[in-house]
Amino acid sequence: MTNTPRHILITGCSSGIGLDAALRLSKQGWRVFASARKADDVVRLQGLGLDAVQLDVADSESIAQGLAQVLAASGGRLDAVFNNAGFGVPGAVEDLSRDAMRHQFETNVFGAIELSNAVLPLFRRQGFGRLVFNSSVLGFAAMPYRGAYNASKFALEGFADTLRQELYGSGIHVSLIEPGPIVSRFRANAAEQFFRWIKPEGSFHRPAYEQMQARLNKKGAAVPFTLPEEAVFKVLLHALEARKPRVRYRVTVPSQVFWYLKRLLPSRWLERLLLAASGDEPGFSYGRKAEKRKKSPHS
């Protein structure tokens, strides 16, 4: 580390990965600008000793105002941006409205790219900078009832990979972090989004939704191999400080395993494994089970 602290803007710091990264980087000597969408969360972050700004990545005006506030406080310097803000809108693809999909993409994709584009002129003038995008194992391996989230992370990875090529030789590095299950409020937030956007009554997938809601409402780790937020921080630090940061950082066993299985297995074999690993049984399975019970002489 140099004597002059490096400056980073992190989005989505109200809880989980963003909050953990902000606190840990601050202890590592970074000057952290921790952003959150709600004013109450900004006050709470300030109480933790962080430079906190209100910034909603789903709002262009909020992005411009938040970034201006950061640059005014930093003297016009920014070394890195961690595009962490994101959430999931669960539900079967056939039950997703255009508004629900737009809502998902505004934060997970459009906001991250708009903020990154806003800092690129500064990074180019400096001749250096780091852009880190928090993606997911679902950015390369899709699972059922996560269609909007899957698509948003697939899209984010496409933007990030293209951006990296366009920045080749500029001194600006672009990295993707692809976590599997991490302890956070992600499931609790997803449950709220489900009830906001999905109408299970009358849906073909209603039986599957009941199973899905039980998983979303489960306390603690809902699946094996869940790791604490610190697992993401470890690779984030490498992406920010390594001379040659990696293009991708896969965090947790599921993310690492499915990355290799996608390259080794036929697509249909991989899909069966992803279905089994998802914890959510598609609606047609319930129909088949019911049909078997009707045909069984013991039913």
Automatic annotation (TrEMBL):
Pfam families: adh_short (PF00106). Keywords: Oxidoreductase. InterPro entries: NAD(P)-bd_dom_sf (IPR036291), Sc_DH/Rdtase_CS (IPR020904), SDR_fam (IPR002347). Gene3D superfamilies: NAD(P)-binding Rossmann-like Domain. GO terms for molecular function: oxidoreductase activity. Belongs to the short-chain dehydrogenases/reductases (SDR) family. This is SDR family NAD(P)-dependent oxidoreductase.
